[in-house]
Amino acid sequence: MTKILIPADYIELTGVIQQCLLVADEQGFTVSGIELGVSPTHTILVSNSNDTIGLVADLYTDLAPRVSQDYSSSYVFSYHSTLALSDFTQQAQNVIFLALDDGERCLDVWHHPLNGEVRALSFSSNNVRHADNPSHLSWIVTLLALDFPLEDCLTLARAMVNVSRETWTNNYAQFPTPVIEDSRLGIKVGWGVNQHQIQFPTLAHASLGLYPVVDSVEWIERLLNLGIKTLQLRIKNPDQSDLEQQIKRAILLGKQFDAQVFINDYWQLAIEHGAYGVHLGQEDLEESNLKQLSDAGIRLGLSTHGYYELLRIVQIAPSYIALGHIFPTTTKQMPSKPQGLIRLALYQKLIDTIPYGSDVGVPTVAIGGIDLANARAVWQCGVSSLAVVRAITLSSEPQQVIQAFADVMASREMIEEPSHVE
């Protein structure tokens, strides 16, 4: 059971949150386990069996959240601040400043709850209306109750106030833009420096198909011989003695079979040996040089784990976007929680509106815990490709598994194809 407790002096917010929960329910989120009640203090509480979040907003009080060791975190939402951006870094880390005026643009600014990194969203000043603030706060509270991370709550809440109260927005034009460089706030991601000089080759959505992720060149060769056309070599140990030989051989095999072989992480070796593509995680972006990858004509795939990361990396226009992890997975330690099918479908609807080359809709790869038992449900979310790891490598009959996945991925094509029977 999750509880949302609203202070008595702002009890009118309850009705707005109820409307937000109704919209979330229509998207398929489970809201029946969310209970609304009255907070015993001036602090809004969002609590479940694991933790309690306390928050207040200057929409109804000037007091800070009540100090309690029971809180996993607490936030102060400042809607009416005239703070200069250059002074933000001197503010308390739990204060979130909303719609700070920056001329033609406004900024939502906060510190990441775990590492203290400054983050910001930029959006048009024309979209800021004080009358929308209760709705904005209600969406943040609702999304926290639905277990979205703070950065996604802020990103999605800002988009939600741009549409009618009965609508869950999936339109890219209505979302804010994550800031990747602002000297006043100390935001400077290395990969964003040359973003306007970077261009990665586009991919045909249908070219990705089934996308096995394997840890050896032996598996690369075996799967290429079984007809797979898109693969990723992911070797976790950078000290592996034959690392470069494995990468070089995988790239050569890709060319021999006219296949799309992506190298995970080791971008310098990928450039050196002329790889078709490179896949990077969010944590790998800072250590990479996207300008060099772009200049080499290498296709780039990037991992994302939510709305904020998705909207941040589309600014460098990758060749494809990986969405995950969809289900619990044991193949690697994950910094995020499983996304699930509802969020996957919503991400896909948003991505379908994002410019991609001369068209719209970036190719997507769903990854994380996908097997034959859940593949059809994932595929029906509209993604371009299914990434699989153990479903193939742990099978005694990889060819049969590959054919079973092919049958699943052909089913949506049959649904989407118009009937020619008269």
From TrEMBL:
Under which pathway is this protein filed?
Answer: Cofactor biosynthesis; thiamine diphosphate biosynthesis; thiamine phosphate from 4-amino-2-methyl-5-diphosphomethylpyrimidine and 4-methyl-5-(2-phosphoethyl)-thiazole: step 1/1
**Record-linked Gene3D superfamilies:** Aldolase class I
InterPro entries xrefs: Aldolase_TIM, ThiamineP_synth_sf, ThiamineP_synth_TenI, TMP_synthase
One example GO MF annotation: thiamine-phosphate diphosphorylase activity
Q: Which Pfam families match?
A: TMP-TENI
Domain of life according to the entry:
Bacteria
Q: Which UniProt keywords apply?
A: Magnesium, Metal-binding, Thiamine biosynthesis, Transferase
EC number(s) given by UniProt: 2.5.1.3
Residues making up the signal peptide according to the UniProt record: none
Q: Which reaction does it catalyse?
A: 2-[(2R,5Z)-2-carboxy-4-methylthiazol-5(2H)-ylidene]ethyl phosphate + 4-amino-2-methyl-5-(diphosphooxymethyl)pyrimidine + 2 H(+) = thiamine phosphate + CO2 + diphosphate; 2-(2-carboxy-4-methylthiazol-5-yl)ethyl phosphate + 4-amino-2-methyl-5-(diphosphooxymethyl)pyrimidine + 2 H(+) = thiamine phosphate + CO2 + diphosphate; 4-methyl-5-(2-phosphooxyethyl)-thiazole + 4-amino-2-methyl-5-(diphosphooxymethyl)pyrimidine + H(+) = thiamine phosphate + diphosphate
**PANTHER family, per the entry:** THIAMINE-PHOSPHATE PYROPHOSPHORYLASE, THIAMINE-PHOSPHATE SYNTHASE
Q: Which NCBIfam families match?
A: PRK03512.1, PRK12290.1, thiE
Q: Which family does it belong to?
A: Belongs to the thiamine-phosphate synthase family.
This one is known as Thiamine-phosphate synthase
Q: Which organism is it from?
A: Vibrio japonicus
